[in-house]
Amino acid sequence: MPDWSYRTLFQPLLFSLSDERARRLTLGAMRGLYRFPLGKQLIQHMGHMAPSPKLSRHLLGVELASPVAIAGDIDPERLGVEPLSLFGAGLLDLGMVTEEPIVGTIIRNDKEGGLQLSHPWVNQGKEALLARLRDIGSISTPLTVRLGYKPTASVEEITHERTRLLRELAPFLSFFILDETHHRDWDQREWMEHLAAVAAVSREMHKPLIAHDRAGFGGTLLATGIVFLLTALWGIRQGERWVWWALFLSGLPGFVAGIGVHFDVGYIDHFHLLPAYIALGLYVAGLVLTYPYLMDKKQTKILLMEQSRHV
Question: Which residues cross the membrane (predicted)?
Fold first, then answer.
């Protein structure tokens, strides 16, 4: 939409309406234009939003046209899925889904220029989403949803709800995301059992599953690896006792927690744990082999004397 027409005409009109009515009018108009003969081509011609092939990405075996996704919070009723698929995004998030609807409203925050949900899991429920997915038909942009659950549900009920949602929605979607914005207080055993059950159904349906905490864990693991790499390249010097202690104290809790939790929850599959065993062996061997070099007391005294001279 040209900026001159939005600022002078459409923005004053839409902002004079209620939040719900303005959103439905906008998305409904986009959907109507898309379904009009040559409407799809008109949106593509006027919008010029097709991304460059250089922006394409591959994620878990799915090709994305760009690394940008459109969040489902702007369209919780999925009114504008088809036209939004032409906006250059590589992925369309259809928002939260639970088996039963969670009622709420979208509030426009004029001060911050954004939208805010009255409840983080507002959605129309599974049946409404299935009906909409059947109506959408074929679009080129991959679709995903965030799997929620009834806020008052038990762990067992949450697992059953999410696995049922996975099975019923899998034919229409490319990804599933486990949404934990409700911030349930999972303990380690509950979460691992829940994740294992959901992941098993995901593999059965041949659909990638993205858990927010796993993505965060991967980023932390990469950052830790960089720290250890830099230490190995430039920190290993004779008599630098602090390096040995840093490696020992930083690695110890990781291996104790990473391996020990499997025994705590009763998931003792030694083949599954084999990479961790190998890493532990390399870790112990590295500590043993570097101990005489890094813990050389005579060299440490020389280093301290050199540092005192500079001071």
Answer: 215-236, 243-263, 275-294
Helix residue ranges, H only, 170-240: 188-204, 212-234
- Summarize pLDDT for 260-297 with one digit per residue, the tens: 877 776 667 788 788 889 989 998 998 899 888 888 77
Q: SS3 of 278, please?
A: helix
CA 296 to chain centre: 46
Long-range contacts of 264-267 (CB under 8 A, 24+ apart): 264/188, 264/189, 265/188, 265/189, 265/192, 265/193, 267/192, 267/196
Residue 181 in domain: yes
- The answer to whether residues 160 and 208 belong to one domain is yes
pTM over 0.90: no
Note the Cα 143 to chain centre separation in Å.
14
Long-range contacts of 303-309 (CB under 8 A, 24+ apart): 303/239, 303/240
Q: Give yes or no: residues 58 and 198 share one domain.
A: yes
Domain count, the chain: 2
Is residue 26, in this structure, part of any structural domain at all? no
Is residue 9 a part of any domain in this protein?
Answer: no
Contact 79, 28 (CB under 8 A): yes
pLDDT single digits (tens) 24-41: 888 888 888 878 888 778
Does one domain contain both 80 and 210? yes
Q: Which domain holds residue 281?
A: 235-310
pLDDT at 259 exceeding the cut of 80: yes
β-pairing verdict for 175-178 and 143-147: parallel
Mean pLDDT of 6-24: 78
Q: Domain check: are 161 and 269 in the same one?
A: no
**pLDDT tier, 301 (very low <50, low <70, confident <90, very high otherwise):** low
Question: Which DSSP symbol is given to 170?
Answer: G
CATH of the domain at 145: 3.20.20.70
